Amino acid sequence: MKECAIVKDLLPLYIEDMVSEETKLFINEHLKECEDCRNELDILKSEALISTPEIISENEMRPFRKAAKKLNRQLYGFSYMLIILFILLGFSYTAEEKMMYNSLIMPLVGAFSYATFKWQVIYKLPVLLVGVNIFAMIFGILSVDPMSAVLWTLIYMLFAFIGSLIAYLLHFAFRKEK
Ligand SMILES: [Zn+2]
């Protein structure tokens, strides 16, 4: 039937609601009688449902996602530097008057490390603490005997992990509330 060809050409516009009232009536009338065109309409509708979100996310979101990824990487690097600097600061206070600040600095380092590394904090925090400890010993920032250095590193690790734990619990509670 010649009508079918016309209806099938118009169906994409019909599902987008971009046809005149007259055309819509004509198509509706035809669909009532023609199973072939009804099937065609079903196929077009399901295709439209699948392809629309994909077009938006793949083509339009790509530059945004790229930028977000780049920013994320830069933020991650910046956080890394900040954590190392604060650990170094803490070690430089060891066996000095300002040492008490470490009971605040180390938990903050731990909390910030959790925010940056998430579960990876479990191994990254000890590695960073030991690494900075060795660095501080070599460059004379930390001038205590090796036994004390090991002891302080362990104490700071404990403080830092308490901070991580608090950050984890807060994060967990906050997510539950949402
Ligand atoms: Zn038809």
The distinct bound ligands, ions and cofactors come out as: zinc ion
Which sequence of SSEs, written as H and E, runs from N to C? HHHHHHH
The best one-word shape is rod-shaped
Question: β content, as a range?
Answer: under 5%
What is the gyration radius calculated from CA atoms?
Answer: 32 Å
* Tally of individual helices: 7
The total domain count is 2
Structural category is: mainly alpha
Written description of the protein model:
This protein is an all-alpha fold and 178 residues long. It has two domains: 2-60; 75-177. Helices cover 85% and strands 0% of the residues. It is built from seven helices and no strands. The protein has helices spanning 2-15, 21-33, 35-60, 62-93, 102-117, 121-138, 146-177. The protein is rod-shaped, with a radius of gyration of 32 Å. The model has no long low-confidence stretch (mean pLDDT 89). The chain binds zinc ion.
Please write out the topology:
Layout lengths: L1 H14 L5 H13 L1 H26 L1 H32 L8 H16 L3 H18 L7 H32 L1
The protein binds zinc ion.
Zinc ion binds next to helix 1 and helix 3.
Summed up, what is this model?
The protein has 178 residues and is mainly alpha-helical. The chain has 2 domains: 59 residues; 103 residues.
